[in-house]
Specification:
Order of helices and strands: HHHHHEHEHHEEEHHHHHHHHHE
Radius of gyration: 23 Å
Structural class: alpha+beta
Number of strands: 6
Strand content: 5-15%
Strand order of the largest sheet: 1-4-5-3
Length: about 375
């Protein structure tokens, strides 16, 4: 980090970028202040644009946050301030506000990288239906919404082969991030283009697929709703269940008495958890409440609530952003190039776009370069 770079960034200091970077690092104002050697009041002044840090102080801030000092310079790049209220989170009762703010800030980095990629590569157009339902919508309306999305996307009868790839093919950006906290299973937000963030450490394929379908439910049902409502979370769960296990296809396959051997076979066929199958069985009236409770008690006693039998293999991984990067690599554009242009740490950009080779999706260069096949 050069002294000249710090001076130039300080002269063009962008106060909102400081708040975003601090939130993405998971630091409170007083924690950052302690690392930098200034007061918490000074950090607050910087973030609200009431004062600008000196070049020396900004260099210390950048070092403390692990960011290039150039990131804090105003340069005409668009910025959407992190807002946890604009993102939908699961497990709301156990998710700390600090973790939610951190995750939402990280999503803004995703948005910045996507905005940058779209200057060079044509990503699939967003084609996620918006079927906003009222807060008190009946379950039947949610079932119909899930069916409508499957029909709009031309899905064949039966299980969804690959939920993440399906979302990407219809224009949603899906990425996997680390360090979001165990309470943040997944979350989604609308930043012009739908963004779905999955927790990279989650290695249960069935539950990760349900997470992705749950976030699709928010994007379809709640595009104009205020997040943070347990009713909306329940609606998204109901949508995910109906989307992954449509009533007309699975009803006759569900056992009329709880039979874990049969349920395990259905798990392998449909790519959903035993818990989800039991819940769906109760919802559709295939089993009663008492049978459901006994089955879940058995799940608990066997330790299956945390570690179910029936390994479905490696969780689904997103490919769209990595495919875009591969197109650019053919023209000499690397992760390092993108990080420099985005003024973000290389590790952040690498994580967002995928840090290992993956199969390509069909994308097209905006200037006519041949699409990936």
């Amino acid at each position: 980090m050069s002294a000249g770079g710090a001076r130039a960034a300080a002269a063009l200091f962008h106060s909102e970028r400081l708040g975003l970077a601090r939130q993405a690092a998971g630091l409170r104002k007083n924690e950052l202040a302690e690392r930098v050697g200034v007061s918490a009041a000074a950090i607050s002044q910087f973030e609200h644009g009431r004062a600008n840090p000196s070049a020396v102080t900004l260099a210390k801030i950048a070092l403390a946050l692990g960011m290039p000092v150039e990131y804090f310079a105003r340069d005409g790049r668009p910025l959407r301030q992190a807002n946890a209220a604009a993102a939908f989170f699961r497990s709301l009762r156990s998710t700390r506000q600090r973790d939610r703010t951190l995750a939402a800030a990280r999503a803004m980095f995703v948005w910045e990288v996507v905005h940058l990629l779209e200057r060079h590569v044509e990503l699939p157009e967003p084609a996620i239906p918006e079927l906003s339902l009222p807060l008190g919508a009946e379950r039947e309306a949610i079932e119909q919404a899930a069916t409508a999305v499957r029909d709009a996307w031309g899905l064949p009868p039966g299980p969804v082969a690959h939920v993440v790839r399906l979302l990407e093919a219809h224009g949603a950006v899906v990425t996997q991030l680390r360090g979001l906290g165990r309470e943040v299973d997944a979350f989604s937000c609308l930043q012009g283009r739908p963004i779905i963030v999955l927790w990279r450490e989650k290695q249960d394929k069935a539950r990760a697929r349900f997470d992705a379908a749950h976030e699709l439910g928010h994007l379809v049902l709640h595009s104009e709703a205020e997040s943070g409502n347990k009713i909306l979370e329940a609606q998204a769960d109901a949508f995910a269940a109906a989307f992954l296990m449509p009533r007309e296809y699975i009803y006759d396959q569900l056992p009329r008495r709880v039979d874990f051997r049969h349920l395990l076979e259905l798990k392998m066929r449909w790519g959903v958890s035993l818990s989800a199958l039991l819940y769906r069985s109760r919802t559709l009236g295939v089993i009663g409440e008492s049978s459901y409770r006994r089955a879940m008690a058995r799940m608990s006693s066997e330790g299956w609530r945390q570690d179910e039998p029936g390994d479905l293999g490696v969780p689904e991984a997103p490919t769209m952003l990595h495919a875009a990067l591969e197109l650019l690599r053919e023209r000499g554009v690397t992760v390092e190039t993108l990080a420099s242009e985005a003024r973000l740490p290389i590790a952040v950009v690498a994580e967002i776009v995928g840090d290992s080779p993956r199969p390509r999706l069909e994308l097209a260069e905006t200037d006519g370069v041949e699409a990936a096949g």
